[in-house]
Amino acid sequence: xxxxxxxxxxxxxxxxxxxxxxxxxxxxxxxxxxxxxxxxxxxxxxxxxxxxxxxxxxxxxxxxxxxxxxxxxxxxxxxxxxxxxxxxxxxxxxxxxxxxxxxxxxxxxxxxxxxxxxxxxxxxxxxxxxxxxxxxxxxxxxxxxxxxxxxxxxxxxxxxxxxxxxxxxxxxxxxxxxxxxxxxxxxxxxxxxxxxxxxxxxxxxxxxxxxxxxxxxxxxxxxxxxxxxxxxxxxxxxxxxxxxxxxxxxxxxxxxxxxxxxxxxxxxxxxxxxxxxxxxxxxxxxxxxxxxxxxxxxxxxxxxxxxxxxxxxxxxxxxxxxxxxxxxxxxxxxxxxxxxxxxxxxxxxxxxxxxxxxxxxxxxxxxxxxxxxxxxxxxxx
Length: 381
Description:
8% of the residues lie in helices and 41% in strands. It is mainly beta and 381 residues long.
């Protein structure tokens, strides 16, 4: 759903072919449409509702957050549950609520515009029966298995990936310019262990009644190609399984087709993407998006390099990364290491004394240039 806001505008020029660049004349009122996206968990798991605005095709940032809104979930008994804006445009929900009641989401913007969802009946999503991976000659396939019920026949899956990222060359040393000395890095200064994270880019749907006994067996969640960076050492994926109301499925199917078919003149028109949010104002301001309510089931798995070897990871970005053969002696430390672009990588010893260092470049030794040093709270070594 990350690109839903820009998808509306992306699809407008598709009827005009692709040989000649085309700039659609989109009315100014259509350039800033409210977009509502979210699946709120009913059993206390932290979940979020995203409010944003559509952006022009040429915009550098595809996410234009709608800040300062008042967002409330209200049940049929009159109880209200406020959502809290954690970061611009992201409104968090973390409540255990009664799944036997119906609900609506009410949104009031800073401008005074008001929106409300259609009536929402929470879906009690069945548990994930199994989650794992399979190794073949093309790489690794991550899968889940589940079983639908009469009340939860349709499923939506999303996932979050995290993995260890290492530089091509690991340097345990740091040059301290103020002292004109090289010393061993402290634990806080280490730059050889980092982490990367990404969220699922696509839309994964399935209807369990298509299968015998409504068992969805080893549904492919994602595929990791042979040699991919994500399993250079240790990889983790958190799979979230969400039950959908049958009336919500057409929205997700259309969005999936639009997302996957961009570039084809046969793609469904964006006018078919509406959702279950409506404006309460007399002007009936246009709005896009979908909000759902139910139990989110999750499974996390880890994959170690040893479990899929040989993996043969090789990043061409670092093909020219080497440790130089010429030693940098103490008299040349500042001239060589002073600007930080070149770093001491390996010690050169005479007997038991370090008298110099073999250098390498910072971009080959510092993982913080490409990833975060912050270890995820869920990470298990």
